[in-house]
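[job 4471] stage=fold_predict status=RUNNING
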Amino acid sequence: MIQYDSRKVKPGDTFVAIPGLKYDGADFIPQAIANGAQVIVAEKEVLVPPGIKFERVPSARKALAYLSAKYYDFPSRKLKLIGVTGTNGKTTVTHLIHSILTTAGFKTGIIGTINSTLTTPESADLQAELAQMVKEGITHCVMEVSSHALAQERVYGCEFAQAIFTNLTHDHLDYHKTMEGYLAAKRKLFEMLPAEAVAIINVDDPASASLIEVVKGEVIPYGLKQAKHELRSTKYSEFDVRVSQVEIREKEMFLKINATEIRTPLIGLHHAYNILAAYHSGLALGLSSSFIKKGIEAVKVIPGRQEEIDLGQPFRVIVDFAHSPDSLQKLIETYRPFTKGKIILVFGCPGERDREKRPIMGEIAARFADQVVVTTDDPHGEDPVQIINDIVKGIERSGKVFMIEIDRRKAIEEALKMAQAGDTVLIAGRGHEKFQDFAGKKTTLDDRQVCKEVLSGGSQKS
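[job 4471] inference complete, writing structure tokens
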């Protein structure tokens, strides 16, 4: 087998020494050899014992991806692989497409944030997962493709039938350094598309032009601002999709796409874009609008994505994954028109990640929410107090009164206790996640479960 973790090496395996952010795989070559590796692949020259084959490569990550794909006989060629990339919306779009395909009778796999430790698995793990899908008779797979995965060549060697772009907003600049670097990572997915593949791109986003210019095949544009789009060929001429109506109600959104009327509990303008992306994906796969409508409407909730916790309390409680400035603002704006009382926001920022966005998110919280409780997210190896101080800098500029509670469970409890009838409590940043990371130590914490425990305990005001 192809391995990148020296601890997993078994006799006869190939070990690829990939350079990481904290550790260099080359440092673990002796351990890999001791465990029985017969082939060592690395970017720098390494002396190996007689009988061990050594191969030097310009990119260990590309080598790992290609060798893994080859080992499993290129599984992505044996199913239709749909990749979804963008700052926000990846999880929702993949779940919508998965539902559409399942409704249409296709055996469909899904890879992403909710069912994987990494949004997009490391290449060797990804190829193994795709191979298993092929073995199980799965014909389609829809996958979230993160910017980290693209920058780290995790999907190198994959053959995509479709690539979808949702949007590009401020995030991950600790890794990509600049928005240009962030966009360049996203662009890789569209550069690698074969000529027969289809790119489905949100043309209302300014980054779209940069992506369109590198696509070899057909580009299917979508958006709410543009009424008509020029296609490169007549093959997809039926994709002149017009959205004539979007009505966002308190617990339902209505969309009219051409003659198709869709009703969904996924509310907010951002979800209108997500639904449009999935709708176009279905059309490009040759599905009828009736199947697409049925598949979209079958999705009632996506774990940790605007997930409502309703135990009969007189105020709304929403748990969401919003962890970037844009997604946090959109979350608050979505519920503002339907909140008679106050919007109470609980949020934090992860440690060892994009420090620039912390005061920006603090400023957004102060500007759009009525009451703010600042707490922890995943501090990782960083001091939680420092993270909170960074967020607070943005809040203090507004002069708004806010609360700090480092213990996230207590922060949620406080927010729920202060809520009155007609208020909306938004708990943002972690969504479906069930553990907090404190310097590598995992602590059980599920925002949804905490809400249920507090609300069922009768600690809320009425």
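[job 4471] summary: DSSP finds 15 helices and 21 strands in the chain.
[job 4471] exit 0
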